[in-house]
Automatic annotation (TrEMBL):
Residues 64-224 form the Glycosyltransferase RgtA/B/C/D-like domain. Keywords: Cell membrane, Glycosyltransferase, Membrane, Transferase, Transmembrane, Transmembrane helix. This is Glycosyltransferase family 39 protein. The lineage of its organism: Bacteria, Pseudomonadati, Pseudomonadota, Gammaproteobacteria, Pseudomonadales. It holds the Pfam family PMT_2.
């Protein structure tokens, strides 16, 4: 008789697998894209200036995202002293924790084998690898949306479990102040309500509990207030026009406004079905032709578990389809629900495939192992392939050429600020034009300006510019006040931001906890 591992031991083994796959190459990776540079820079600036309620980017208020993820990166930087590791620890922690939740929920809803299959499917999916290994907010958001899913599912499908329901509501609240869509698990209530009304088995009806349901909403609001209440009080008592504008931006324009009329990443309604799911939900996408009819048969049998979880996955995907702005990572919160409803069908599917194919049956475990080994190996190959961040190289050259003088940034990117080795001056992320840089240099002749090479001729003599190299998709040059060609006239006064790292940092450097809290 085959001996089965205890659920606790098996769960720990799956968590260890998640740790190995997602953590492979940790310490070799450096911030490579705009998002990672931005979030790491904001976190380090929080540690330097102590402004925790309102994030800043090179001294300018950064109003695109709430601060929870940046707080977490700042905490891990303080704890480890290694920014290049701290940036990726939220995703690693999320991956290990979500794997455990997926396993446990699959085990409780179906069988231990189903829990194991669900966890392995979650870790095998390409989107898991591509998101959890990045230093992006979505790598941390999945922790709270999955905890919300877990808490609500424990209550709606295995309950009554009001404590788990409140845990799920609190997780949604933290998710909202991590990224506005943290409320997504609440969409479970829609298919659940329909299943209860139709008296489907597999769901737990809880009539006459209006106060307890309403208290869940209060719990979610209380979790949101962890950040929002101190922010509101700070703005009321000490806030100026910039702080009020930040609150308006983060609470209205970056949430409802961005969903209804996005100004970036505009894609058609079907974008996720044609450009994301076929690639990022591999290998599950390959078996959808078998899974969809099987789900249909389960729904005909009135399986409430399948209805609630499958309905939720569909609602999440449709929620993002209706938004004009779309990115590949948006639908990732739906993946744990998808693997949970796919996992019970895996044994049936494999039995169907292996029938009359003994060689395939013998080779299948090796194929699965090879799939995971390749992901693990890629974790070490990618950092070598990516190499050093070109923004870091550029800013080292700029500091050398300018001898550490003030550097005016023109059409700058986050990497120019993150890797700066000298004081930087700018006029806002969207208003740092070459004309304003020329005006500043005319008034501060000892300063230099970092300008995209194709814009140098607008205000400066091209022969007076020194090429530094390429980064952020552009060629960059550095100029001094002596290179002014006189074509740019002084403009109207504008807001000037000046920022300098007390101790210049880069993802490749370490900082002690004492330096992190007192740079």
């Amino acid at each position: 008789m085959r001996r089965t591992l205890s659920p606790r031991v098996e769960c720990l083994g799956l968590m260890l697998l998640a740790l190995l796959l997602i953590g492979a190459g940790l310490g070799f990776r450096t911030a490579q894209n705009v998002d990672e540079e931005r979030f790491l820079g904001v976190a380090l600036e929080m540690l330097q200036n102590g402004a925790w309620l309102i994030p800043h980017r090179a001294a300018e208020i950064y109003g695109d995202k709430p601060p929870i993820f940046m707080w977490t990166v700042a905490f891990f930087t303080w704890l480890t002293g290694k920014p290049n590791i701290a940036l990726y620890l939220p995703g690693l922690f999320s991956g290990v924790t979500v794997t455990a939740m997926v396993y446990d929920l699959g085990r409780r809803l179906w069988t231990q084998r189903t829990g194991r299959n669900a966890a392995l499917l979650y870790l095998a999916t390409y989107q898991t690898y591509s998101i959890l290994r990045t230093g992006q907010i979505d790598s941390f958001l999945i922790l709270f949306t999955s905890l919300g899913l877990y808490g609500l599912a424990r209550h709606l499908l295995l309950g009554p479990a009001w404590r788990w329901f409140y845990v799920g509501c609190a997780a949604m609240g933290i998710g909202v102040i991590t990224k506005g869509v943290g409320f997504l698990p609440a969409l479970l209530l829609i298919p659940y309500a329909w299943a209860v009304r139709k008296d489907w088995p597999g769901v737990v009806a809880m009539p006459g509990e209006a106060r307890k349901w309403l208290f869940g909403f209060v719990v979610m609001l209380a979790a949101i207030a962890i950040w929002l209440l101190p922010l509101a009080l700070s703005i009321i008592f000490n806030g100026g026009a910039d702080e009020v504008a930040y609150a308006r931006e983060i609470l209205l324009r970056q949430t409802a406004g961005r969903y209804a009329d996005a100004w970036h990443h505009r894609e058609p309604f079907w974008y996720f079905f044609t450009n994301v799911i076929p690639q990022y939900w591999l290998p599950l996408f390959l078996v959808l032709p078998w899974l969809v009819p099987a789900w249909r048969r389960q729904l005909k049998k009135h399986d409430g578990r399948v209805l609630v979880l499958l309905g939720w996955v569909v609602l999440v995907v449709l929620f993002f389809c209706f938004s004009s702005g779309k990115r590949k990572l948006y639908i990732y919160p739906a993946l744990p629900g998808l693997v949970l409803i796919a996992a019970p069908l895996i044994p049936w599917l494999l039995k169907r495939w292996f029938k009359g194919r003994p060689r395939l049956q013998r080779a299948f475990p090796a194929l699965v192992a090879a799939w995971f080994v390749l992901w693990f190996a890629r974790g070490f190959i990618e950092p070598v392939k990516d190499g050093e961040n070109p923004d870091q190289t550029l800013m080292v050259k700029a500091a050398s050429v300018s001898h550490g003088a003030d550097l005016v940034l023109v059409n700058w990117q986050e990497g120019h600020w993150l890797f700066a080795h000298q004081p930087v001056v700018h006029f806002g992320m969207l208003d740092s034009t070459v004309q304003r840089a020329a005006q500043w240099l005319s008034e501060h002749p000892k300063a230099y300006a970092l300008v995209p090479s194709e814009q140098v001729g607008e205000c400066f003599k091209t022969e007076g510019a020194q090429a530094l190299g390429e980064s952020s998709g552009s060629q960059w040059s550095i100029v001094s006040a002596d290179a002014d060609n006189g074509k740019c006239r002084p403009g109207s006064a504008t807001t000037v931001y000046r920022f300098a790292w007390d101790k210049p940092l880069s993802p490749g450097k370490s900082v002690t906890p004492a330096q992190a809290s007192n740079p």
